[in-house]
Amino acid sequence: MKLFCTKKDGQPRQKLGCFGKTLIGIGIYFLVCALFSWILGDTLSTPKTTLEENTVYRIDMSGELVEQAAEDNPMNLVMAEMTGKDILTQVGLNDLLSNIALAKNNDKVLGIYLRGGELAAAPASAKALRDALLDFKESGKFVIAYADSYTQTNYYIVSVADKIYLNAVGSVAWDGLSAQKMYYTRLMEKVGVEMQILKVGTFKSAVEPYFRTSMSAEDRKQTEQYLNGIWEEMRSAVAQSRQLTSAQLDKYANEGMSVQPYENYVAYGLVDTLVYVQDMDTVLRQYTGTKDYKVLSHSKMTNVERAKVDAKDKVAVIYAEGQIFDGGDQGITDTEMIKIVNKIHKDEDVKAVVLRVNSPGGSADASEQIWHAVTTLQAKGMPVVVSMGDYAASGGYYISCAADYIYAEPTTLTGSIGIFGTVPNFKKIREKVGIDMDAVSTHKYSTMTTGMVYRGMSKDEHAIMQSMVERGYDLFTSRCADGRGMTQDAIKAVGEGRVWLGKDAVKLGLVDELGNINSAIQKAAELAELQAYQLSYYPEKKDPLQELLKMLDNSTPEERLIMNIREFASEARIMALMPEVTIQ
What we know:
Helix 14 links the parallel strand 17 and strand 18. The strands form six sheets. Strands 12, 15, 17, 18, 19, 21, 22 and 23 form an eight-stranded mixed sheet that branches. The chain has a six-stranded parallel sheet with strand order 10-7-6-4-1-11, sandwiched between helices. The protein starts with 14 loop residues before the first helix and ends with a strand. With 584 residues, it is α/β, with parallel strands linked by helices. Helix 3 runs parallel beside helix 4 (123-137), helix 12 runs parallel beside helix 13 (364-379) and helix 17 (459-484) packs across helix 18.
């Protein structure tokens, strides 16, 4: 949009006329933007749902289970068509837990129908959902499940159902767990890139993919331990719900259940009945006792208005989900977390804070900044209670350790108290493509920052960098020791970058108690001596309009890749991050 007026011959018009028309142009521009936002905002807004008699709450077991999903956006389908990008459906665990509690306590809701799909959920989140369904069943209302096929995670969750229905030619995945990791050392050798590693912690295996081709003995040991622990939790839970033994379930897993004849699923007691999806209408009529039942989707249940709590005092719930970064707009950033803490400082009604952490870690510097921000809340007299989700490891534990009380799920992956640095060396690839470098310096380390990347580290530079990483580890362990009331040596004894399950972390003193986010909220209120309180959530759910604008990003994948490489190569990355692992 041009803001300056010119004649056709390119000469400027009279100043007064130009200025006036410029103002008119600006006014029209903002008026159009405001009108567009009003229309789009009205389009994207979702009306409140009114619950009717004989309602069945339907939960579609598909998509990606996250801590806090963005606002439901009915324009996603349209924008996906326009931009050619796929829709990634996210389901908020917070919404599910809230909806299940509402359904339990509302007489208009008769039961829950779990409709099968492929819900991507890590073990701790899956357990939290499963526990909520078990709590719902205490109301005496029904829970039934149907799927064309059950993934192993979905089956673990729906095993709480009164009856499990399966497509007449469907399948159930119950094959055991595996943890898979990818190693890039040989690939990097082929392209001429060497990753220069600096680390503290025998078990700190996040960097192993860059200098090994398989697991170290230490990484294999810790992976086997937490994998067996997760399997033990899943197996015992399913055994209790399905009235099977652990020995039976291990036997079934060794038979490769996902490819067994479908009749075996009933014979083995994994499901109750083989039916087609059309038959589920008859099943729901039987459970509700009426043909006039109403099925309410998850998104509509989320829009049922909640009763407002008549209390001035607040417990603030902060969601910290994803990798930890220095700035930016992805994952957990120190800048965003500090903004949130400053908002809470200004709200005199906030008396306690729950920090919900679901993070494998990330930047050590950003973790320290967030740690400090948490301590400023405590300095103001607010108790801070941490609720750990799927992960609260490395940097995720760093930002948690100062809390007054810490809860974790049994299958939370936590600990990983260690630190590492990675500096790529592009010397071989630079020489391969014919790029030479030369420099003039005033001091010994003037070219260290770029030199480490393009020529490789000298022994002196490596020693300096290693010293920095060791100082970071010393600071990390001292923060943990202060927060947990332990000696630094005691922290180091369970540190070394080792990953622990939540149930083991309790025994080691890294966590206070096993429990979910509701346990943490109740504890925070107890520590603040609150009898009545309302909850306030941070950050606010993402605005659908902002998400639409992000989808219009016209940079190509190649351009984004180049930007990432430049960022990676521009600095030494000092990280507090747990190993990347895929559990399935």
